[in-house]
């Protein structure tokens, strides 16, 4: 007990005990039958109003109960020690239980099937924001794939087609764009990527990106464009015209100082057709062309505009355009 039992008994008999003391007294009283008997005896003396009552002070009760109280204190001490041991053991069990719970949850998460989320644009463009705040603008006929594990250990997406990325900076988790056997890794920056059957084009608008191929790596600086040839695994770096490269985001097609043959090649890829140049002057021409077209313009409309600067005619046979 925290307070000597004889003092506690006197307070109870005098009705001076606090609520806390009454609780402690009740606990002592209920511990064993001998305590109840001892209290009944003392209370009977008190109630009888004998002279002994006036001397029922701590000295008297101490003489009568000191030995028993000491015994009780020793027992309480043993109980307290046992309680402490059990409490520590219980705490360890609880902590182990909590740890096991989280390990179990982590294990379940690791074993859970990976879910894939796919954006297919087909004839439309779209834009969206990933869970980490990274913004993605996806061009027509493009495909972007990521999983439900995105932003856990790494931030990785898979791209086919063309997309512009505004990557939220994270020093600990690089952002990765996977494209077949090549990939781009950044910490936080803005860049455009286009992947077709033949090449990968990466154009950096700000910050820096690291392009990784099976046997080489290269870091780009702003206003640079990298061209990676899938078949030969060759890398070339050029100065980029950002307005031209990002014109698709405005629904435009821009050409700036491009050779006629290069423009025709681009139209073939865009419209999925074959264009054969029979005009030898145009085929070998070193003249360059600058122009802007709307994305929704037809191939025929574009050819009409080009023919103003490069006089030629054309005809279509079985989905093949012949320039004469």
Characterization of this structure:
Helix content is 39%, strand content 32%. It has 324 residues and is α+β, with helices and mostly antiparallel strands. It has three domains: 106 residues, no CATH class; 130 residues, Jelly Rolls; 72 residues, Phage tail protein beta-alpha-beta fold. Strands 1, 2, 3, 4, 5, 6, 7, 8, 9, 10, 11, 12 and 13 form a 13-stranded mixed sheet that branches. A hairpin with a 3-residue loop joins strand 8 and strand 9. The termini are far apart. About 13% of the residues have low confidence.
Written as H for each helix and E for each strand, in order along the chain, the element string is: HHHHHEEEEEEEEEEEEEHEHEHEHEE
User: How large is the count of helical segments?
Assistant: 9
Query: How many structurally independent domains?
Result: 3
By secondary-structure content and strand pairing, the structural class works out as alpha+beta
CATH topology of the largest domain: Jelly Rolls
Mean of residue pLDDT?
A: 78
What's the short story on this structure?
The chain is α+β, with helices and mostly antiparallel strands and 324 residues long.
């Amino acid at each position: 007990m925290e307070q000597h039992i004889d003092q506690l008994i006197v307070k109870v008999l005098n009705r001076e005990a606090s609520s806390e003391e009454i609780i402690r007294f009740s606990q002592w009283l209920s511990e064993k039958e001998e305590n109840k008997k001892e209290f009944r005896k003392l209370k009977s003396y008190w109630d009888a109003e004998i002279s002994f009552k006036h001397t029922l002070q701590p000295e008297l009760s101490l003489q009568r109960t000191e030995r028993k109280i000491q015994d009780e204190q020793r027992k309480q001490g043993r109980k307290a020690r046992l309680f402490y041991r059990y409490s520590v053991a219980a705490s360890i069990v609880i902590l182990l239980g909590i740890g096991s719970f989280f390990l179990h949850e982590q294990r379940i998460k690791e074993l859970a099937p990976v879910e894939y989320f796919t954006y297919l644009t087909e004839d439309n463009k779209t834009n969206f924001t990933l869970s980490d705040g990274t913004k993605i603008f996806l061009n027509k006929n493009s495909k972007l794939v990521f999983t439900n594990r995105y932003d856990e250990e790494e931030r990785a997406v898979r791209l086919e087609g063309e997309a512009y990325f505004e990557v939220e900076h994270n020093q600990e988790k690089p952002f990765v764009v996977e494209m077949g056997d090549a990939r781009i890794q950044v910490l936080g920056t803005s860049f455009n990527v286009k992947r077709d059957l033949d090449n990968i084009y990466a154009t950096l608008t700000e910050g820096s990106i690291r392009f990784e191929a099976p046997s080489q790596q290269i870091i780009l600086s702003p206003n640079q464009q990298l061209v990676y040839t899938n078949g030969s695994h060759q890398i070339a770096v050029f100065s980029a015209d950002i307005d031209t490269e990002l014109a698709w985001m405005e629904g435009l097609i821009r050409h700036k100082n491009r050779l006629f043959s290069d423009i025709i090649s681009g139209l073939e890829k865009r419209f999925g057709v074959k264009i054969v140049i029979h005009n030898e002057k145009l085929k070998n021409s070193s003249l360059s062309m600058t122009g802007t077209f709307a994305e929704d313009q037809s191939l025929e409309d574009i050819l009409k505009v080009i023919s103003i600067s490069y006089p030629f005619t054309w005809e279509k046979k079985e989905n093949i355009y012949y320039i004469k």
